[in-house]
Amino acid sequence: MVTLTLNPAIDVSSEADEVRHTHKIRTSREELEAGGGGINVARVLTRLGADVRAVFLAGGATGHALDELLARTCVDRRRIEIAGDTRLSLTVMERATGHEYRFVPEGPEVSDSEWSAALEAIAGERCDYLVASGSLPRGVPADFYVRLAKALGGRGVRLVLDTSGEALEAALAHGGLFLIKPSRSELEHFAGTPLPNNDDVIAAARQLVDQGRAEHVAVSLGGEGAIFVSRDGSHFAPALDVPAQSAVGAGDSFVAGMVFGFSRGLPPDEAFRLGMAAGAAAVLTCGSEIARADDVWRLFGGRPADRATT
């Protein structure tokens, strides 16, 4: 497996008694993690036992720090150097209220030669699954993921895409995706109409599958759970009842769980259930920490026997 992250971040998390404007806020329990959509997915997949490589853009002093943080996780990685400084995101949990404050910068501007280098790097990778996850940084064209799909050619790579906005819209218009994970609002934007209930969500997702835009569609409903639609049918799963610590990385963990399930030969509905377990496992962790393997298998009900290779 390979993951691609064009706009990674160093995720900084901490706690404070109270968050107030103007005042100096003293924090504690500071943690730094290598983050960004595809990097988070790669970290979870590695914990679950998959053979995965993280390909990512990074630059400046913060890019070097990100690379070092990722090295500590034992994730196989390939860094593509850029001129701009890799962003730092900040999450602060306010102990007085239990509220979580998340500050996410837009990140560096990427040149044509830099994002083209990412396409070339992916074209040279050998994998069954490619997970492209996260936002597009400034300077990258909205049709980047369409170009990525074309670069993969007829190699049989299953392209998993977790993004939003124009990038998702362009990729869906091109079609041929293996798995997408839009939120309800993102699916509403593409459908051009509100989707107030689960039946409406299922119908909109079913249309994407029937039109060949995506083979599998997993729609996040936030705290309500998620809906999964494929050629085999549709499934709704309520959010697992776990004590929530932080929502950071839950979506990425969900994607990792699903992809791991597919790679091990699980039926689509079981891969979806594994994704739900991984997403819930991430909620159990504090700050920017991602899902832990023991939590994933406990919530899933045990580790499935491998039925395929990655």
TrEMBL record:
<dbReference type="GO" id="GO:0003872">
    <property type="term" value="F:6-phosphofructokinase activity"/>
</dbReference>
<keyword id="KW-0808">Transferase</keyword>
<dbReference type="GO" id="GO:0005524">
    <property type="term" value="F:ATP binding"/>
</dbReference>
<comment type="similarity">
    <text>Belongs to the carbohydrate kinase PfkB family.</text>
</comment>
<dbReference type="InterPro" id="IPR002173">
    <property type="entry name" value="Carboh/pur_kinase_PfkB_CS"/>
</dbReference>
<dbReference type="InterPro" id="IPR011611">
    <property type="entry name" value="PfkB_dom"/>
</dbReference>
<keyword id="KW-0547">Nucleotide-binding</keyword>
<dbReference type="Pfam" id="PF00294">
    <property type="entry name" value="PfkB"/>
</dbReference>
<protein>
    <recommendedName>
        <fullName>Phosphofructokinase</fullName>
    </recommendedName>
</protein>
<keyword id="KW-0067">ATP-binding</keyword>
<keyword id="KW-0418">Kinase</keyword>
<dbReference type="GO" id="GO:0005829">
    <property type="term" value="C:cytosol"/>
</dbReference>
<dbReference type="InterPro" id="IPR017583">
    <property type="entry name" value="Tagatose/fructose_Pkinase"/>
</dbReference>
<feature type="domain" description="Carbohydrate kinase PfkB">
    <location>
        <begin position="10"/>
        <end position="288"/>
    </location>
</feature>
<dbReference type="InterPro" id="IPR029056">
    <property type="entry name" value="Ribokinase-like"/>
</dbReference>
